[in-house]
Design goal:
Elements lengths: L4 H13 L3 H23 L5 H14 L10 H20 L8 E3 L5 E3 L13 H18 L4 H12 L4 H8 L3 H20 L7 H10 L1
Antiparallel strand pairs: 1-2
Helix pairs in contact: 1-2, 2-3, 2-4, 2-6, 3-4, 4-6, 5-8, 5-9, 6-8, 7-8
């Protein structure tokens, strides 16, 4: 029977630690979309995420022996990616302001993150449409947060990590995580509530309930 989830990740990690390059590549392939999303949401820069992800994967390879099977492989990966993102932001000194909404050759708008498939459980078509639109609004609102606030919000709500784990990853206390999360949430709610576009009112209500 084929392994899935944490058991599969642990099995691949053990093989990778033994020097199996194919196992490492498979493990990275499984998590590459989540890594891409995390890097984008923390840095807010679509131009640099490929380089950031490559740096993160290289660090993961070099740090394979540091994984002690005391947490999930995904948590270990997120910690490395988060650190790489903060290193990138410190080096660049400022975050590039880039919208998640782009235009194709025909001039039609599309969402950058819609090009990255989401493997979570599918919803009803109407709910999917609402969530896609809500996702754009949240991404744009996230630009108003600091990189630290975006990281906390992403790790807690999008990656669904426990407050304690988020604190350990960012080297801050659980109380600081709660404070930052509360501040980020209030900022997002304020920005989303300030959107006066009538056609987004239904989407906005959905987002604020989820936040």
């Amino acid at each position: 029977m084929e392994q899935i989830g944490p058991a599969r990740d642990f099995s691949l990690m053990r093989e990778a630690q033994r020097g199996n390059h194919a196992a490492f590549e498979q493990l990275m392939h499984i998590h590459d979309r989540d890594v891409l999303r995390l890097a984008f949401r923390i840095t807010g820069s679509k131009n640099d995420i490929q380089d950031i992800c490559q740096d993160a994967f290289l660090k993961m390879y070099k740090k394979l022996d540091s994984f002690r099977f005391e947490c999930s492989v995904s948590t270990w990966i997120y910690r490395i990616v988060t650190n790489v993102c903060f290193d990138h932001l410190r080096k660049s000194r400022c975050r590039k302001e880039n919208s998640a909404v782009e235009r194709n050759a025909e001039g039609e708008e599309y969402n950058l993150l819609d090009q990255i498939s989401d493997t979570r459980q599918a919803h009803q078509p109407e709910q999917q449409a609402i969530r896609r639109e809500a996702g754009v609004q949240v991404l744009l609102a996230l630009e108003g947060l600091t990189s630290h606030e975006r990281a906390v919000f992403e790790l807690r709500y999008f990656r669904e990590l426990k407050l304690r784990i988020v604190g350990e990853m960012l080297n801050i206390s659980e109380a600081s995580v709660k404070t930052t999360l509360s501040r980020a949430t209030q900022k997002l709610k304020s920005q989303l509530a300030g959107d006066t576009n009538g056609r987004n009112s239904r989407c906005r209500g959905q987002v604020m309930r989820e936040v």
